[in-house]
Each structure stands twice: as structure tokens, then as C-alpha cells.
Input
Amino acid sequence: MAVELVVLQQRLAPPDYEVALARDMLVVHLPPARLLEAVRILQAEFHFDLFLDVTAVDWLPRQPRFEVVYHFYSTRHFVRVRLKTTVPESDPTVDSLVSLYGSAGYMERECHDMYGIAFRGNPDLRPILLYEGFVGHPLRKDYPKLKEQPLVPYRK
Amino acid sequence: MVPKTIPIHAATSKSAAFEYLTTKKDELIGWARKFSIFPYPFVTACCAMEFMAVSSSPYDTDRFGAALPRFSPRQADLLMVVGTVTHKQAPILLKVYEQMCEPKWVMAFGVCASSGGFYQNYAAVAGIDKIIPVDIYVPGCPPRPEMVIDGIMQLQDKIARSRHPIVTKGF
Output
């Protein structure tokens, strides 16, 4: 492994941060305010050039409720990194990564669709998988399982 | 039992040649229509693989006159809804159905189109018959080609049985 995980860990996270190792992948828990800076470090200093995914986990009824999860990959070092941050239900806002990775736009739109996470700085958070007029966020645990929002009136 | 052939009564002429042909209008038109089902494949999901299998040479829907997919709904008689229809897709399906000229028939191909299948959530329509009328249901995930052929044959029987008004009220 060309980049030592220890170096990465020391650079990304102060000693009091929660850090874990999952399947040889460094997992770092960050406060939302630290996220953009950490991603900038990953990209600029460690060549994490591929933004794999952003998604969220709804931990209802735990507080803070949502965990936003990011995956990055370095095509130079063949290393993955997972960043996690938690946001409360009252203000589920994290910084958008569109300024660093262009591909973040679509993924953040999907995450916004499904979980209602607001990405501050994303210029286009229109629905991408859902449709205009859809109320609520279907992958939240409190969205009713059988609730339908049809666009076409049903027959009879 | 539905007659499989048109009853043909040869004119009682000594020349023994067909000079007259008498039949019922509905039976004649039904016979013609049931062998010229031009399908419009509305393909949205994995059932498409089975649709390809059933329309290619080993199973050969050409035998039923249902070979030539029309890629404009205006030229099609049979709307084959192949795969899951989501709520986002539903307005498109309805528009395609409304663009088809009468007479038209609808086949729900696969269990998702028939009843929603195992999808019971915010995204999927639980059966296209909530939106458009369906003539024939072919369940299966995906259905075997034999089931689709059976569905086409049952649809042919249905077409042969039904009334075929030529001049409508508004004509």
C-alpha cells in the first residue's frame, strides 16, 4: 500500500476523533463543519481522485438522526476511505462537494431525494429519481411503507 | 367452443367453383384481426430479455401474426407492457395507450405489470390495470416463452369472439 493509513489518519483526524478500520478501509467520523476541509485534504494531498458515493443512514430514533456517508477512492494508491458525519433531523445540512468533485452533483441530488439531506452549495437539488410534486423522502424510516403518490388518477 | 375456421358455404353451382362466400361480419373481421396483431413493446425492465426470446426464431411469434413490433403506438394494435411501471413512468404509459388507434388490446407481460409483483412501495404501480384496461395477464417473473405464446393465443381467441363494429356512432 503506497499510502500509509496511519499517515492518512493523522492528517485527517485529530487524536480524539472516532476512527475505525473496516475491511482495510479507513473510516473516519467527522463533525459536519470539518467535512469539506477533510475532503480537500484527501483530494489535494493524497490523490483521492474518485468520488464513489454519498448516501445517508436513518438511525431513527437515535439522535442525531442521520448519518451521511462518503466513499472516496484513489486510483493512484488503490485505497478507499470512508467519511461519516452525523446531522440532526432539525437541520440536516452538510456542505456540498460539487466544488471539488463534479460527480457529486447527481449523487447529492439522489441523497436529497431519498433522505432529505440538504447539501449547502449544490446549485441543483431538483428531484432526480423522484418526480416533481413528491412529498416526503421515501427512504426515511418514518415514511409509510405503503404510501403511494400516483401521478395518474386510478381507474374506477 | 369457438370455431377455429370460418364456415364457408360454397354456392350450389354446378361449376363447383367458389362464387359466393357467406359468413358473419364479426367472425370475418375477428379472424382477420387476430392474425395481424402488431405489438408495441413498452419495455421497462428485465422482462425485456424474455420478450426478446419469445419474439426471436426459437419461439417465433410470427406464427401468430404478432411478429412485427411497431415503434409508433399509432400503428400498433397490441400494447405489450413488459416490466415494472413506476409512478414516474405511468403518465408516459397512459399517453402511449391513448395514442393507439382503436381497436387496441393490452397485454400485461410479467408479474410486475400484472399486479406489481413483489414491489409494494412508494415507487411502483401495483399493476397497470390501475391505469389502463388490460385484456390479458401473463404472470411470471419473467414468464416462460410458452406462457407468452399461450397468452397471445388466448388473446386471439378473445379477439375472434368479440364484436367488431365497423361504423361507430360518431362516424
Q: What stands out?
A: Chain A touches chain B at residues 130-131, 138, 143, 145-152, 154-155 (CB under 8 Å). Chain A has one domain: 5-120. The domain at 5-120 of chain A is CATH 3.30.460.80 (Beta Polymerase; domain 2).
